[in-house]
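re the bet — no i am not wrong, look at it urself. input seq straight from the record:
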Amino acid sequence: MERTLVLLKPDAVRRGLVGQVLSRFEAKGLTIVAMELRTITGEAADAHYVEHVDKDFYPPLREFATSGPLVALVLEGDEAVTVVRTLTGATDGRKAQPGTIRGDFSLSNRENIVHASDSVESAEREIALWYPDLP
C-alpha cells in the first residue's frame, strides 16, 4: 500500500466542498489514514512549497494557502499517488477535465481546491512535514 498527502485548500473549506471531495477519494477505495483541519503559517507554507518559494507565482500562492483553514489528510491505497492525481485532474482548474475534482469545482490555477503529492518521494516528504508522528 502506498500513501499520499492531500490538502483540501482554503477555497474547498470556504465553499463547503470538503465532504464532496472526500467522498470521491473514499468511493475510489482509498483509506483515510490521518485527517485534520488546520490553518497554516507562512513558514509552514514555505516548507511545504519549498520548490516554488523563489518563483514569481509563489507570493500569491503563499497568501492563499494561509488565508484560512484547510484540511490535511493522508490517503492510502494501491498506487495512491497516481490514483489521487488522476482524480484531482490538471492543476489549472480551467483546463481540468470534467469529472475530475478540479474540473468540476475549480476555475483557477491557484484556487484549485486541492493539493496532491506529485510523486512517491514528494508524498514521503510532505507526509513527514504534516504528520511527523504518523507511523
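see?? Helices lie at 10-14, 18-28, 42-48, 58-65, 80-88, 101-105, 120-130. told u. also The chain is about 40% helix and 20% strand. so pay up
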